[in-house]
Amino acid sequence: MAYINKLFDENFLEYASYVIKERAIPHLDDGLKPVQRRILQSLHDVDDGKFNKVANVVGHAMQYHPHGDASIYEALVNLANKELFIDKQGNFGNTLTGDPASAARYIECRLLPLGKEVLFGPEITEFTDSYDGRRKEPITLPAKIPLPLILGAEGIAVGMSTRMLPHNFVEVLEAEQAHLRGEEFELFPDVPSGGIIDVSNYNQGNGKILSRARLDSSDPKRIVVRELPYGVTTESLIASVEAAARSNKIKIGAINDYTTENVEIEIKLSRGVHTEDVLDGLYAFTDCEVSVSLNMLMIRDEKPAVMSVPEVIEHHSGRLVELLEKELLLERGQLLDKIHARTLEKIFIVEKIYKRIEPIKTVPGIFRTVHKGFIPFSEEIGRDVSDDDVERLLKIPIRRISQFDIERMEDEIKQLQDRIDVVDYHLKNLVEYALGFLDGILEKYRNKYPRKSEIVSLHKVDVREAAQKNLKVKYNPDTGYLGYEASGGRVLFDASVYDRVLYIKKDGSYLITDVPDKLFVGKGMLYAGLADKETCEEVVFTLVYRNMENKYPYIKRCRIIQYILNRSYNLVPDEGTLIRLTTKEDVAAVVDFKQKSLIPGSDQFPVSDYLIKGVKARGVRIKPKDFTSARFISLKTLEKKED
After folding, report:
1. Is there a single domain that holds both residue 515 and residue 547?
2. pLDDT score for 599
3. Are 627 and 591 in contact (CB under 8 A)?
4. 359 lies in a domain?
C-alpha cells in the first residue's frame, strides 16, 4: 500500500507539473503556451511567402506537439483570430457570433510580416529536443514585444488558473518605451469585441473589470447592441436577454440579430415601455454587462508566478535590450568575418600569393605556402589565418582572380567597417537603440491596431433596483392562494422577482418568503405586503389577543424587522389567541365586555397610547377577562359618534 501511495504521489506531481508548464499556463518570455509556440514555429518552418493549408500546418506542428491534431487546430484558429501574427484565408469562424471555423482542409494561413519581425531569430533562440527527439523546438521564442499583455491568455491547470485580458498593441509598446525612458505609465486592457470597460478595480492585472455592451438607445422604442462585452457572443447575449424576458425581469417585444461583420442586435420594446425603463435591466439581468476577474499567472524561471502589468513591462524591456544586444553582437561578428574574408582575398590576389603555390606538388605544402605568404600582413589581417580560410581562397576561380577590382574590394571593406562603427555605437547606446526599434514597429503598425474598447467609470447596477415591479401579487380568499399566478381575487401590490413578501395568517403566524408564483396560505389571511427594509420600518402591526391562561385581553404593537427567510414566526405568544390585527395608526381598539348590570359595555384604547415593542413582547393587559369582543375603529368615526 505504501508503494501505491508513493506511486500516486509521484505521478500526480509529474502530471500537475506537466499541465502547468507544458499545457495551460503561458510563459513570461514570449506570452505563449507550448501549443501556440509550436504552431508559430511550424509556420516559420514552412514559410515561403505563400498560403499553406491549415491541415498541413497542423500536421507539421504534430512533429513538435504530442497531443493530437484537434487541440492544434483549435489553438491555431484562436491565435489566427487575434489577427497579430497569422494571415488568414477562408472561413476562420466569427468571434462575434461564435460560429466555428471551416475544416482544416478548407482554410489556409501564413505568417504575417509582424510575426517575422518580432518573434524569430534562430541564432539567438535556445532549442531543445522535441517530445520524440527527432527535431529541435524552441524553449521560448525571442519575442521583442510584451506578448503576455498583447495576446492575453486563459488557462486552467492543476490547482491554479490564469486569466489575462489583451491590451492594445500600440499602448503596450508606448508603455515599454516609457519604462525605457524611466517615465511613469498606465496600461489598461483593450477588449477585442469593443464595448465599454470600467478598470477602477483592475489592480495592475490581478483585480477585475466591468465590461459592457455598447447600446444605441437613440430610438425610444428600440435598443440596438453595437458592440459586445468581453467573452460574450451574439448568441449568448440573445439567450440571456430572452431568459430575462421570460423571467419578467425586463419587458421586450422582440429581439432580432442582424450581425454580419459588425454587431447589430435589435431589441424591440413592448408597447408602453421606453428605453430608459429597460437599459438598467439589460445591464443587471443579461450579458450586456459582465464582471471579469483576473489573475496574471505565468511561467517564470520554470515556476508559476503571479505578475503585475508593470512587472511584465519591466521584464520585457530588459529582455528587448538583451535580445537586441545579442543580435548586434551576432551581426558584429558576421561583419568581422566578412572583412576578414575580403582582406584575405585582397592580399591573396594583389600580392600574388596564388602564384607561389604553382610549383608545390602536395596539399600540405600548398597550405604551408599560403600561410607563410600571409605572415608579412598579419597586422593588417588582425587575426589568425585558419585552414578553412586557405581552403576558401584556393577555391577562387581563375576568372575571378583575373577580373579582380581592388578599388571595389576596398569599398566593400570600408562599407563593412562603417557598419561595424554603427553597430558599436548601438552597443554603447542600447536603450536608445531599443527605443528606435519600437519606434520603427509603431510607425509601421500604429494605424492597424486602434483601441477598440472605451474606458469609462461605470456605476454598478443593483439588480434589485433595476428589477421592474411587473408582477401583480393577488390573494384569493375563496381558495386561499397567494401569488402572481393565483387565479381570481384582487391585486394586493406590484412586485419584482427580487422582492420578498410578508404574509400573516388568521392565527397570527407569519412568514417572509420570495415573491410566490402560487402559494397556499389558507383562507382568512390577515395581511400581505412587501418585506423590503423601508416597508418593514414603516409598517406597525397592532393586535389584540386573548391570553387563554388568564382570559385577559392584551394589546400589542410591534414592527417586523428581523427575520430568517422562509421560517415561520408568530405575533401572538404561545398561550394567546389572536382577536384583531391592523396596520392603521389613527385607530382605537374598542373592547366590548359584560357588566354586572348585564348591560354590555365597551372601552376605547387609542393605539397611539401604547409603545412599539419587539415581536416577542407580551403587550399590555387592557380589560378584565369577561370581555366579549374587540375591534378597531378610526378615531374620526369615534369622534362623530360622541358628537
Report:
1. no
2. 63
3. yes
4. yes
Q: pLDDT, tens digit, for every residue of 72-101? A: 999 999 999 999 999 999 999 999 998 999
Task: Tally the domains of the chain.
Answer: 5
Lowest mean pLDDT among 116-120, 387-391, 428-432, 436-440: 387-391
Domain endpoint, select from 448, 482, 505: 448
| Residue 608 scores a pLDDT above 80 | yes
The strands making up 553-558's β-sheet, listed across from edge to edge, are 576-582, 541-547, 553-558, 620-621
Specify the pLDDT at position 261. Answer: 87
Distances from the Cα of 539 to the Cαs of 245, 247, 486, 491, 636, in angstroms? 32, 29, 25, 19, 21
pLDDT tens column, 351-369: 888 888 888 888 888 889 8
End-to-end Cα distance, the chain: 98
**506 and 552 share one domain:** no
How far is the C-alpha of 577 from the C-alpha of 570, rounded, in Å?
11
User: pLDDT tier at 225 (50, 70, 90 boundaries)?
Assistant: very high
Give tens-digit pLDDT for 246-261.
888 888 889 999 998 8
Cβ-proximal residues to 358 (8 Å cutoff; 6+ apart), any chain: none
Do 430 and 552 fall into the same domain? no
Query: 85 is written with which cell numbers?
Result: 501574427
Which structural domain, as residue segments, surrounds residue 124?
Answer: 32-142
**Long-range contact pairs involving 490-497 (C-beta distance under 8 Å, separation at least 24):** 492/528, 492/529, 493/528, 493/529, 493/530, 494/469, 494/470, 495/469, 495/471, 495/530, 496/249, 496/464, 496/467, 496/468, 496/469, 496/470, 496/471, 497/247, 497/248, 497/249, 497/467, 497/471
Which residues are part of the catalytic machinery? 106
Helices 34-46 and 54-61, packing angle to 10 deg: 120
Q: What is the DSSP letter of 146?
A: -
Domain end marker among 402, 418, 448: 448
- Dist. CA 399–CA 230, nearest whole Å: 68
Q: What is the pLDDT of residue 2?
A: 65
What's the CATH number where 38 sits?
3.90.199.10
Residue 336 and residue 417 in one domain: yes
Query: pLDDT category, 198, cuts 50, 70, 90?
Result: very high
Do residues 330 and 440 both lie within one domain? yes
Residues 521 and 550 both lie in one domain: no
